[in-house]
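Protein Entry — a single chain follows
Next Lines — sequence and tokenised fold
***
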Amino acid sequence: ERKHALSELSLKISEARARVEAARQACAASVPSAPSQAEPTLVERELMRAMNKQAELQAQKALKLFSLIAVCRRVTHPYIYVNGEAASSPPGVAEPERQMAGGSAGSAG
């Protein structure tokens, strides 16, 4: 489901990039009738709209990725402390790797 949502956003972003590029080409090709116009032309408005839409889609994708990072970190390290340290076991309980390493060293000595 997450992969589908990200691929859908990536597809929308690539379409938005194509629209921005087409609008830029149209804006460059259009000859301004009056160089000191206070109001943007239709082509310029379309270019601004396309650029805004592309930025919005990129922000949506970034937020989706940030939320996925947080979810993945919670799953692999459900205990995140105030100091930023992450652990997979609750406070006071040794992590499995440390128990095994400590147990084998203790029995050998």
Notes: The longest helix spans residues 42-76. DSSP finds three helices and two strands in the chain. The radius of gyration is 26 Å. The beta strands are 79-80, 86-87.
